[in-house]
Amino acid sequence: MIVFFNKQTGEIYGTINGRVHDQEQIDKCLIRPTNVAINDIGKFVIPFETKYEVVEVPLTELRLVNKETGKVEEVVVGKQKVKKGAGMFVNADYADLIYAFENGKDDIYKYKAKLEKGNFVGFEKK
User: Fold this and answer.
1) How large is the C-alpha radius of gyration of the chain?
2) Strands 111-116, 48-66: parallel, antiparallel or unpaired by DSSP?
3) Structure pTM?
């Protein structure tokens, strides 16, 4: 999720939903009212990180089972552990609020950006 806000007041102007954004989208996207200067718009990308889990998967190989017909079958010869993606999570104190926004249980426009020295540090109720 990318949040666009006023750098002075913290008012949120809009968001781009999603957990993964490419650098071009981050650099080029902008949401702003027409009466607000571009320099007054702040942009913050919510820090989502991938969660991983280690799972055991069968290790297989192909073996010739019939020399006459040339029939080959895949057989399990063991197991191996692999690291697999298991979803994404917000790596910030306001994670529960982001999940509420995503699930429609809360409205981001009831909040404003909490700023420290012009930098986004969280959300606060209006």
Assistant:
1) 24
2) unpaired
3) 0.75
